[in-house]
Amino acid sequence: MPKMKTRKSAAKRYKMTGTGKVRYKKQGLRHILTKKSSKRKRKLRHTAELSKPEQKRAHVLLPYA
Question: Can you give the pTM of this predicted structure?
Answer without folding.
Answer: 0.85
